[in-house]
């Protein structure tokens, strides 16, 4: 029997692409849900013209209202959270448990992991599979590190770098979509593992990385929960971290410093103003490149000889590059290979090689620079 997935925020920027990709690359049916039933219905009508209409429905679902979620989730086997609602992750997760559904979110906010871990006992008991930190950042860093881990022994260093630019078709439509980035800017976390120790990354820890179409970029440390378990998995690792390049001069030298300064006065200070400035800057000021470049530079040995490995993935659209790994992960889930009870971070759950194959099939370009195994 085909399954029904619920896409909360399914008519948003990443949600719209995710819905289309799910209809294209899986056989699931979808319910598009959100706090505006009208917007959900308009979008459902749009995709009903492209895909079999019986696979698509629309409904109202408000992430902050438990009863509305439980009502909307009836008969669904998987809840996918594509809404900008990390503050309600616990509520959405509880509603998923109440209707006996599995769960996946790709929120950028890192504290969602802790929220879901707090429910792990109930999730295990119910035999449900909860996947968090899906997407590309989070989502891909641990998958890339684990991919390189198949080639390197001992495995000594892994640097993940990424650069993003807005593509002509992927303009930021509303400032609210950027609130999570403003929150992180004002409460910056940048833990990296350097010289065998965890440390808060600062300007001295920036690195230069070759990011394909973006060129060589100076990248800044960015904390990702999925990085924390890696030194325990690869005992010889002395360095592992996630690093991100700037966007453009307007954001890097004007908006970010102002945002950080306001954040020092009070967290949340100027949130909407900063998000508006950021959206304007992303949409109107030329960036260092378009789309996304995501890379790993990994160092270690193979058969007693030093080996360094570089993998670069690029795509012309950041929204699509978020949806593609989610769909690739869900294809492994649907096949049954990763569907197991508990709370999992996507980057630790998926088979990286299979993920790459599916991402390539969906249009991501990979360049692998390492000797054949
Ligand atoms: N992992 C990654 O690589 C990655 C990359 C990019 C984004 N993200 C994450 O993806 C999520 C979505 O981002 P986006 O850029 O697609 O945002 P977006 O374009 O702003 O879309 C957000 C969607 O959520 C809906 N929504 C907002 N508040 C809601 C509520 N209280 N109840 C129900 N629905 C609500 C919106 O509906 P309305 O239009 O009616 O407000 C909209 O459909 C965010 O959490 C972001 O951090 C992750």
Q: Unreliable stretches, pLDDT < 50, 5 or more residues?
A: none
Average pLDDT number: 95
| Span of the ends, CA to CA | 40 Å
Fraction of helical residues: 25-40%
Identify the CATH homologous superfamily of the largest domain.
Dihydrodipicolinate Reductase, domain 2
Secondary structure elements and their pairing?
Elements: E1 4-8, H1 13-25, E2 29-34, H2 37-48, E3 56-60, H3 66-72, E4 78-81, H4 89-98, E5 102-105, H5 112-117, H6 120-125, E6 129-132, H7 140-149, E7 155-165, H8 179-186, E8 191-194, E9 197-200, E10 207-210, E11 216-221, H9 230-233, E12 239-245, H10 249-265, H11 271-284, E13 291-302, E14 305-315, H12 318-335, E15 342-345, H13 346-349, H14 352-361, E16 365-369
Parallel strand pairs: 1-2, 1-4, 2-3, 4-5, 5-6, 6-15, 7-12
Antiparallel strand pairs: 7-13, 8-9, 10-11, 11-12, 13-14, 14-16
Helix pairs in contact: 1-12, 3-4, 8-11, 10-11, 12-14
Bound molecules: NADP nicotinamide-adenine-dinucleotide phosphate.
